[in-house]
Design brief:
Blueprint (H helix, E strand, L loop, with lengths): L1 H7 L3 H8 L2 H6 L5 H14 L4 H25 L3 H8 L2 H34 L3 H16 L6 H26 L3 H9 L6 H14 L2 H10 L9 H37 L6 H8 L5 H10 L1 H34 L5 H42 L1 H11 L2 H4 L6 H30 L6 H27 L32 H6 L1
Helix pairs in contact: 4-11, 4-13, 5-10, 5-11, 5-12, 5-13, 5-18, 6-7, 6-16, 7-8, 7-16, 7-17, 8-16, 8-17, 9-13, 9-16, 11-20, 12-16, 12-18, 14-15, 15-16, 16-17, 17-20, 18-20
Length: 500
Amino acid sequence: MASLVQIQETPTWKKFLSYVGPGLLVSVAYLDPGNLETDLQAGADHKYELLWIVLLGLAFAFIIQSRSANLGVATGRHLSEHCKDEYPKPVTYCLWILAEVSVIAADIPQVIGIAFALKLLLNIPLWSGVMLAGLNTLLLLGLQKYGIRKLELAIAVLLMIVGGCFFSVMVHAQPNVKDMAMGMFIPKLSNGSATRDSIALLGALIMPHNLFLHSALVTSRKIHRSNDQIRNATKYFLLESGMALFIAFLVNVAVVSVSGSICSNPYVSADEKAHCNEITLDSAAFLLKDSLGKWSSKLYAVSLLASGQSSSVTGTFAGQYIMQGFLDLKMKLWLRNLLTRCIAIAPSLMVCIIGGSSGAGKLIIIASMILSFELPFALVPLLRFTSSGSKMGQHKNSKMVTVITWLLGFCSIGVNIYFLSRSLFGWLTSKKMPRAVSIFSTVMICPVMVLYVAMLAYLTLKPEATSKSVQSSEASSTGTVEMELGQGADLQNSEVADEI
């Protein structure tokens, strides 16, 4: 009874701090090297015109990520576990493979970003940077044995480094504040190129593995299964996610503004203009160095390193939950880390050895196409589960939220399919490709697209299975939140908790 009184008297700010962490880990996906490259190109091509797209995209991301968090809080189980229960084994294995591929695709720009950063800072070969990226991530994940809170703190520090570096560069670049405000709050697409780049911006924001990750991370907090405690936890996680994604939004604005300010300068040199036409993670450093000085390229390299490192850690973390949830593997945590990491860095390592910087840049584009292809297979199940009364109980989405989320979900799927189709069409009609190869590729791709649409229709329209694990708050109406500030190392999955 005394402990109950003590928890009830805990100040609100302490309660909130005890929930801070999952949103920070999730927000790094919106600041990964792939997003930074897309932001830099958008600013270089259109100055501040597409800032409203960044605002719209992060607002949409906030709504979707909140649904993922709600699923974990209300049911005590994460998205991949629900998929395993809901669908037949063939579909489950298919979704697992797609989820694993999405982790690998998301990790490609992260690993390559770290490799480019190490090349800029230490002048080491790109392939060596990829190897160091894999090793460094495993060392950072070693913080798990000290508890999830320590890992969350490390990621928060890396996020501050990314933001601090880009804000420092932005202050020196001196973007026009009035033009930035107009670009952020006045929707405008001046030409077809702006429309194309806005779709690329939206497509690069929400990543499939992030939906699996967020629903799992919130289960690291022990929450009593009463209605009031679940509602309180949902409220705190919503606030925490909003703050984390707002920070991510500010950093994205800073990145767009830096390249927009530099490339729109009428006194920019011919060499700088050449860099502006096609910005890559590598060439961005030379653009900043030529325009603002050597110090700015070093700051960029540090921010790229921190961005790649933090997002690579969370990607590996997501891979653990995906493997555990879909397959229920009884595997040691360190072995799962090693397996997930090796699978993720293998493509980047091979391409960097064979193709160098140019090949690495092309691999990032391919990775973005794969993520666009994969997103619906995580998003559709998430929206179905969070709208289900049998799974969420009284914590399911309201009718208004259901309509809004499904509308946003279909818009996102449409945007990603358009981006994917346009990229594939451009590739197939490229003059660099032999006509016979182009025709053969088209014949092979058409059945895949038909299967793709059929799979989406099945996931959307399939009758709901009887839930095996409805942990509705109706099962209990008394108790306390079994969590104190600084404690939260236990993951929901028992073997993961034992390892940590």
